[in-house]
């Protein structure tokens, strides 16, 4: 998942949760039933958002490690070039 798409996924789930809560408010059910449904929807949405957050953190770690490897490789190349120039 790219960085741009991860943010979109999080907003999608947040919008879906809000939409579901509004739909429940307009559904013909008792107050107790509606509150129970809203609670269940909130828990499910919280879990999905937490999962998306974990995926975001994992992706950030992967990108950090790749950047670190590239920086290490560049440093080694620089040192090799410097040694060649010095003779």
Content of β-strand: under 5%
Q: In terms of structural class, how would the helical and strand content be classed?
A: mainly alpha
- Rounded to the nearest angstrom, the distance between the terminal CA atoms is 46 Å
* Main pleated-sheet profile: none
The overall pLDDT, averaged over residues, is: 83
Number of helices: 2
Shape: rod-shaped
Radius of gyration: 24 Å
Low-confidence stretches: none
How are helices and strands ordered from N to C? HH
Helix content: over 70%
When the domains are counted, the total is 1
Number of strands: 0
What does this 3D model show about the protein?
This protein has one domain. With 87 residues, it is mainly α. Helix content is 92%, strand content 0%. The chain has helices at residues 3-26, 31-86.
Topology:
Elements: H1 3-26, H2 31-86
Helix pairs in contact: 1-2
Describe the structure concisely for a colleague.
The chain has 87 residues and is mostly helical.
Give the tags.
2 helices; 92% helix; 87 residues; mainly alpha; rod-shaped
